């Protein structure tokens, strides 16, 4: 099994790229030393990472060098996370351009997955066509990623248009994009993560493993989610996709969260040969 770890737990989240004035440049970025974070993640046994698009942009002049550096550490770039509003038609062309640039750069760095989050919640009232517009935009983004040889998937997220089970069902009835379930976001949005995964098992290429204790995100095995049940179900269904641990927003030590999460997976997901000596 391939199991990676998201670098965003190791620093504060900010926006980058002059996004105050130009929507085409809005990106997520974790403030951290990326190479040091890669080394720490590898030291616990993980063999891959996911990055925000803003962190990837630091390597825009030499994405192949990033790929080589990761390989030298025994890591690969599983995926890159990016987001957009999607529903504002005047802005969408620039947002799609940005997603395309991210996909090109990510593909050169060896990434397999392009994870898409977002779908703006309007300040006044949601337009009744917003979900349809979101679905259409995601299909366009999926096509852009496919041209770069990447798998695009949508990540339902708190604070977006797609939080609840009903919203998830509505969106996936309107778009063909793949589904990247984040287990804690599903639980926090009122869903039973296992039941959602049972419904959409055939369109899941990538899973974000995250735990939830009813108040916040916590290391794997420290919350309320039936992680073992979900992992066992997918394994019995011959799931052949990738797994990524993401413990963002955790109030504790990010290094300890990384270690605890790997130790939990060592008893549930990882083959013996993949465990640390």
From TrEMBL:
Q: One Pfam family, short name please?
A: AP_endonuc_2
Q: Which domain of life is it from?
A: Bacteria
Q: Secretion signal: which residues?
A: none
Concerning InterPro entries, the annotation shows: IolE/XylAMocC-like, Xyl_isomerase-like_sf, Xyl_isomerase-like_TIM-brl
Q: What is this protein called?
A: Inosose dehydratase
Q: Which organism is it from?
A: Sinobaca qinghaiensis
Q: Where is the Xylose isomerase-like TIM barrel domain?
A: 38-263
């Amino acid at each position: 099994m391939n199991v990676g770890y998201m670098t965003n737990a190791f620093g504060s989240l900010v926006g980058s790229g002059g996004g105050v004035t130009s929507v085409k440049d809005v990106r997520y970025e974790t403030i951290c030393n990326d190479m040091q974070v890669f080394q720490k993640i590898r030291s616990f046994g993980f063999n891959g990472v996911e990055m925000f698009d803003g962190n990837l942009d630091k390597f825009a002049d030499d994405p192949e060098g990033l790929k080589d550096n990761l390989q030298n550490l025994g890591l690969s770039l599983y995926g890159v996370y990016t987001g957009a509003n999607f529903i504002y038609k005047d802005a969408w062309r620039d947002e799609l351009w940005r997603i395309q640039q991210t996909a090109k750069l990510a593909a050169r760095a060896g990434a397999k997955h392009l994870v898409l989050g977002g779908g703006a919640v309007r300040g006044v009232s949601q337009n009744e066509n917003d979900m349809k517009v979101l679905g259409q935009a995601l299909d366009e983004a999926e096509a852009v990623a496919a041209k770069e040889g990447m798998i695009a998937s949508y990540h339902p997220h708190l604070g977006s248009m797609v939080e609840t089970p009903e919203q998830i069902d509505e969106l996936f009835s309107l778009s063909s994009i793949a589904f990247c379930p984040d287990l804690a976001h599903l639980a926090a949005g009122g869903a039973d993560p296992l039941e959602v995964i049972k419904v959409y098992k055939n369109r899941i290429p990538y899973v974000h493993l995250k735990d939830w204790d009813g108040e916040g995100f916590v290391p794997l095995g420290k919350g309320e989610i039936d992680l073992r049940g979900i992992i066992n179900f997918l394994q019995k269904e011959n799931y052949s996709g990738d797994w990524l641990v993401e413990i963002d927003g955790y109030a504790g030590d990010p290094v300890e969260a990384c270690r605890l999460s790997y130790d939990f997976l060592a008893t549930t997901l990882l083959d013996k040969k993949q465990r640390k000596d």
